[in-house]
């Protein structure tokens, strides 16, 4: 996440973070980024508020000016990341995200991190619990940055 955050900052884009406070007021082991001011963080009591913020950030609202190049990029992560990934998949499937303007959703499968998850989803297709091709239609799986940049360039019709 550091590279994504620093890249956005270098491009002059707004960057912030969400933190989840524990019931007793103690923080998890997650630290503040050393280069982000603490006032750029929003503290949430529940994870659902963090996901709501993610969804709000993912919705493309500009009226076709060409300036909005919103994308959701899922990097390797833990349980919270998986929760967000599946939430986004469900919302895209239900046309709650991308219904007005498509929003690219990239799953970054660095070093095959998500390969077992992709195998599981393929097994779900074989068992009939999800339709064939359904998961693949909701995101673009990229194995490296070049694939991601190529996909986003094609998606938005820009050169890189």
Automatic annotation (TrEMBL):
Gene3D superfamilies for the chain: 3.40.50.450
Classification via InterPro entries: LOG_fam (IPR031100)
Top-rank taxon: Eukaryota
Pfam families reported for this sequence: Lysine_decarbox (PF03641)
PANTHER family: CYTOKININ RIBOSIDE 5'-MONOPHOSPHATE PHOSPHORIBOHYDROLASE, EXPRESSED PROTEIN
Protein name: Cytokinin riboside 5'-monophosphate phosphoribohydrolase
Organism this protein belongs to: Cuscuta europaea
């Amino acid at each position: 996440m550091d590279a994504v955050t620093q890249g956005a900052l270098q491009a002059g884009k707004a960057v912030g973070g969400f933190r989840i406070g524990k019931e007793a007021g103690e923080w998890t082991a997650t630290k503040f980024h050393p280069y982000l001011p603490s006032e750029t963080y929003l503290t949430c009591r529940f994870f659902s508020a963090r996901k709501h913020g993610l969804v709000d950030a993912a919705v493309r609202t500009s009226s076709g000016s060409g300036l909005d190049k919103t994308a959701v990029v899922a990097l390797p992560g833990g349980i919270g990341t998986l929760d967000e990934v599946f939430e986004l998949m469900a919302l895209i499937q239900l046309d709650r995200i991308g219904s007005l303007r498509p929003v690219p959703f990239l799953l970054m499968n660095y070093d095959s991190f998500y390969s077992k998850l992709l195998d599981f989803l393929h097994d779900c297709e074989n068992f009939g619990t999800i339709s064939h091709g359904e998961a693949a239609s909701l995101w673009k799986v990229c194995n490296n940055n070049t694939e991601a940049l190529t996909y986003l360039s094609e998606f938005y019709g820009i050169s890189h």
